[in-house]
Amino acid sequence: MVHRGPGIHQNVKYWIKPDIENRIKNAEVTAYFNSSVLEIKPDSVRIKTPRRERVLKNDFVFALTGYHPDYEFFAVPGH
User: Fold this and answer.
1) Is position 8 within any domain?
2) Are the C-beta atoms of 20 and 53 separated by less than 8 Å?
3) 12 located within any domain
4) Number of domains in the chain
5) Mean pLDDT, rounded, for 38-51
6) Extended beta strands in 1-79, E state
7) Is residue 35 in a domain?
8) What is the arithmetic mean of pLDDT over 49-72?
């Protein structure tokens, strides 16, 4: 999970938030907070974390953009 914020927001549904946090704590889900997606490829995702850029092997991406999505995020540079 790549999230631009410092953690799971308090407004996340009360029955979902503890489940996500517990899965992160138990290493069932890897979370990169204060991070952003730089590039999505067919088998990997390049992200920027506070420490460095990373390339993560990947099968698929769920773009969960929030209540008001920022469609500019999906723009292809140069198109």
Assistant:
1) no
2) no
3) no
4) 1
5) 95
6) 36-40, 44-48, 53-57
7) yes
8) 85
